[in-house]
Design brief:
Helix 1 packs across helix 3 and helix 2 runs antiparallel to helix 3. The chain is mostly helical. The chain has a two-stranded antiparallel ribbon. A two-stranded antiparallel ribbon has the order 3-4. About 0% of the residues are buried. The longest helix has 30 residues.
Length: about 180
């Protein structure tokens, strides 16, 4: 699809802008960038409504995180989209400057994403242990200690490789060209 006009309303005045979608995998995407300060909107809910709304937001974030992980495994998303400690520190600082509510929301999102990652069937992680226990259950026997050690060693190397890639990308994004020539 080629560029198409999008109408908007800003401060009571109508405007039009041409938008060109970009192809990402099997679908086309259009992005929007908000410039300037937006007023903070605080929603207030009753106790029952807050539980329902909280669950809805966790479910939305959960599905979005799984979609990104799926795209990473399929190779339709870049490893550069993963954030390491430098990005997390930068984003948490920005959220903290915005206010307590965005900061707590950001920390909750990080916690949820780490929890989901921990449940992936990668040896060494909790999901890997569950996967190994499932395989032993299907085989109806315990694997030998040597086999388990090798599986965990492979998982450990996988985690170290992922850590190296994420840290490299983090440094490449956040350290100036003067200090990081790659």
């Amino acid at each position: 699809p080629g560029p198409f006009p999008v109408e908007y309303l800003r401060d009571g005045a109508k405007g039009t802008v041409c938008v060109t979608p970009r192809k990402e995998g099997d679908s086309w995407k259009v992005g929007v960038q908000v410039v300037g300060d937006l007023p903070e909107v605080v929603e207030r809910f009753s106790l029952g409504q807050s539980v329902v709304e909280g669950w809805r937001r966790v479910e939305t974030d959960f599905k979005m995180t799984l979609a990104v992980i799926g795209r990473l495994f399929r190779g339709t998303a870049s490893m550069k989209s993963m954030s390491g400690p430098l990005d997390i520190a930068k984003f948490s600082g920005e959220a903290a400057r915005t206010g307590a509510v965005p900061f707590v929301a950001f920390m909750a999102a990080i916690s949820l994403q780490l929890g989901i990652f921990n449940l992936l069937p990668i040896p060494v992680l909790d999901g890997g242990h569950l996967f190994l226990l499932s395989l032993e259950g299907l085989a109806r026997r315990d694997f030998s200690l040597r086999v388990k050690e090798r599986i965990l060693q492979v998982g450990f190397v996988m985690i170290l490789a992922l850590l190296a890639v994420v840290l490299y990308n983090d440094l490449a994004k956040n350290v100036s060209e003067k200090w990081w020539p790659f």
